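Researcher: Re-running this chain for the archive, since the previous output was lost when a drive failed. Same request as before.
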Amino acid sequence: MMTFGAQSRPTFRLWRPLMRVVIGGGVCALALGASLPSASAFEIFGFKLFGGDDADDAGIVDPLTYSVTLEAPEADADMLAALNGASQLVTEVKRPVSGSLGLLSRARSDRERLVAILYEKARYEGVVDIRIEGRSIDELPPDAQFGGEPIPVSINVNAGPLFKLGQVELKGDAAGLSPTEFGLEQGGDAGSLRILKAERDIVRRLQDDGRPLAKVTGRDVVADHDTTELDVGIDVAAGPVAGYGTTSVSGTETVDRDFTAYMAGLVEGKTYSPAEVDAARERLLGLGVFNNVAVAPAEVLDANGRIPMNVNVTERKLRYYGVGATYSNTEGIGLEGYWGHRNLFGQAEKLRIEGSISGIGDRSGVSKLNYNAGIMFEKPGVIGPASKFYTGLKVVYEHPDAYDRFSTKANAGFAYDLTPAQSVSAELSVDYSRITDAFFRNKQFLIVSTPLQYVFDKRDNKLNPTKGFRLLAFVEPAYDTLNTNAFVKIRGEGSVYQSLDSAGRFVLAGRLAAGSIVGASLDDIPADRRFYSGGGGSVRGYAYQGIGPRLADGTPTGGLSYVEASVEMRYSLTDTIGIVPFVDVGTVSATEYPDFSQIKAGAGIGLRYLTPFGPLRIDGAIPLNKGPGDPDFGIYAGIGQAF
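Model: Regenerated C-alpha cells:
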C-alpha cells in the first residue's frame, strides 16, 4: 500500500505545485468548413451518429481491456464525484490501453491525480491504494504482464481527516498584507487550490502597483497530524515598479506583426498594469483572427528599467462559411448562409456576406417568404486600438403580420471602447423603403438617421453570465426626406444576473426594456421602425409582433412606445444541460409614452445545451392572458440565452 504522508512523525513538511487541466467542449448543431476531416465517425453533442471507435483507438498497440472499481468509504458525494472524474482508469475504462505497460502507466498516473484531489479537499493524510490483479502497483515490476481480460483493477481511497488552516504568515514584500484578505484565515479552508489562489491574488495585488516581476519566492507548508492543522508560510518578492518596454509579437503568419503590437495598446513608458495586459489580450482575441493569444511580461527589465512585453498568437483560418436554421411554431422555419474573410488586407479587416430566407411553412404561404441579404466590412484600430470603423449594405424584403416592406439600407460608423466594460458607437444611416401597412399602400420613405449607442457591460461571461449586469442606451434622430418628417427613437435596456449558490448552478436573471418614438404621429413613422412585442426575443408565448395596437379587423399597427420585462431562473442540471423556467410581460402603446392599457404575459420553460460558443436554446411558452388571434403556445429555438 502506498501512503502519501509520513504518518510515523507528528509533524512533516509536504508540498508540490499542483495543477489540474480541465478541458471542456461541445459540438455545434451544424458547422461547415472549407474541408472535412477524413474520419469514419461523426460526433454531435457527445453522441456518435455513425462509425465506431476504430479511428480513436488506431494508435493503440497491443490493446488490453480492464475493469475498475473505485471505493472511498470516507468520502462525501462531492469528493467521490471529484475522484471519479479525475481518475483516467474510471473515465477511460471503455478505451483499451497499450498492453500491460500502458495499464501500469495509467494506474501510476492516476495515483497522482487522486492525491491531487485529496489535497484540493484538504485531506493531507489520505492514502491511495491501486491494485492490478490484487497486487499493489508499488509491488509490480516495470515489465509486469497481465492476462485474462478484462484485467481487474481496484482503487481504494482512504481520505483521512479534514485539515484546517493553522498559522498563516506572509513574508518578504507581502509582510504588510493581511492573509485574511486573500481567504487565508486560521481555522478556514486548507485546500491546496485555496492556497494557490491566495498566492496568485497576492502576486496580482503587487502587480496592480506596477510591479511586473512580483512572484512567490518561497512556500513553507507544515501539516500537523495531531491537530489536523496546516501551517502556511508564503514568501513574496515584489520587484521594482516599471513601465512597459517594447512589445514583441510571435506566431503571426498573415496578420501584420506591427499592427498586432499596435492593437495590444501597451504604450511604452506607461506604468505596468495587469488589468491593461488582460484588456490587451481580450482586444486581440476580439479581432477574430487569432485562436489563442498570450500576453506576458519578460522575466527581466531592459536597459531602461522597463519591462518588455511578449505577445504570442496562433492564427485562425482566413475564410469561413456556414449555414444555420431557426424554428418557431408561430413564425415557421428560417434558413441562413454566410461567407466571411477575417483578414482581408492583413490588418484584421473583416468582410462578411450573408443571406437568409424565413417564414418557410408559415400559414401565409410562399408569397410571404422573407428575404434578407447583406454585405459588411469592418476595419479595427482606425483611431486607436480601442476603435473600429464599420460599413454595410443591406437589402430586405419581408412580410410580417404588421406590414410588407422592401428596403435598401447603407450605413457607416465608428465604435469605441471607453473601458473594457463601456463602449459607444455612432453612425450615419440612409434607408430607402417601400411599405404597405395598416395606413398606406406602397408608401415610400427615405430616412437619414444618426444612431447613437452606449453599452455598459459588467457580465462575468458574455455567452452565459452568472453575475453582473448590462445596460444599453440607444438614441436615433431621424429625418424622412421624402415626407419631411423628423422624429427621435429612444430605447433603453438593462439586464442583471445573480448566482444564488457558490457553484453558479442557480442563476436568477432579469431584464427590463423600454422605448419611445417622439416628434411624429404613428402613421408618419415607417412601420418597420415602430415598436412591436412578442416572440422568442421578447414576450414568449405570443407570435412575432403579436403584441400591440391593432385596427378593428385585427391588423397590427405597431406603437410609439413599449415596455418589456422578463425573469428567468437558470438551473444547470449538469455541466452541459440546463433548465430555465421563465415569465415575460410586455405592452405596446400607440402613444409616445406607455399607457399600460393592455399588458400581455407569457410563461414557460426552456432547455439549454451548453457549448463553448454559447447555449443552444429551446423554449416553450403559453400566453397567460390569451386574446383573439393569439396562439395556444409558442416554441422557439436559437443560439444563446434569451437575454
